[in-house]
């Protein structure tokens, strides 16, 4: 019997230079095409030697100039691979992740060559904090 992973739900908003975002869209569309079956994990070509952090059930969208990505990962968010993608294509991102089985929510913001800003909450902490949108959302 195969043990099923706890799925982590991920939503990412990429933003930045229009040409770089176009390159990102092409890469993500290629990843979508390479996922040839239900729950086949994919990575961009330049990360193929990785053994962790695969993207499952990839959905791509756009709003204004920004690129939106929704996908699943096993057990935990894969922000390390998102950072590699952002650095490779010189784009910024805001990443929301929810691991519902463990009641963990995370938001992080990243700018290539810049700082990674985290906000992590576990289920029993939700009532203890106020959310400061200005500190974690892009300008």
Percent in helix: 10-25%
Biggest β-sheet strands, sense, barrel? 6 strands, antiparallel
CATH class reads Alpha Beta
* Overall pLDDT metric: 81
Strand proportion: 25-35%
> Measured on Cα atoms, how large is the radius of gyration?
15 Å
Kindly name the structural category. alpha+beta
CATH superfamily: Api92-like domains
Under CATH, the topology can be stated as Alpha-Beta Plaits
CATH architectural name: 2-Layer Sandwich
End-to-end separation in angstroms reads 48 Å
Globally, the shape reads globular
User: Number of DSSP helices?
Assistant: 3
Run of helices and strands: EHEEHEEEH
Uncertain runs with pLDDT below 50, 5 residues or more?
none
Count of extended strands: 6
Give me the side-by-side strand order of the main sheet.
Answer: 2-3-1-4-5-6
Question: How many domains would you count in the coordinates?
Answer: 1
Structure in words:
It is a single chain. Helix content is 23%, strand content 35%. With 139 residues, the chain is α+β, with helices and mostly antiparallel strands. The chain has one domain (7-136): 2-Layer Sandwich (Alpha-Beta Plaits). The mean pLDDT is 81.
How would the blueprint of this fold be written?
Blueprint lengths: L6 E9 L2 H17 L21 E8 L2 E9 L4 H11 L2 E8 L4 E7 L5 E7 L10 H4 L3
Antiparallel strand pairs: 1-3, 1-4, 2-3, 4-5, 5-6
Q: Could you write a compact summary of the structure shown?
A:
With 139 residues, the protein is an alpha+beta fold. The protein has helices at 18-34, 79-89, 133-136, and strands at residues 7-15, 56-63, 66-74, 92-99, 104-110, 116-122.
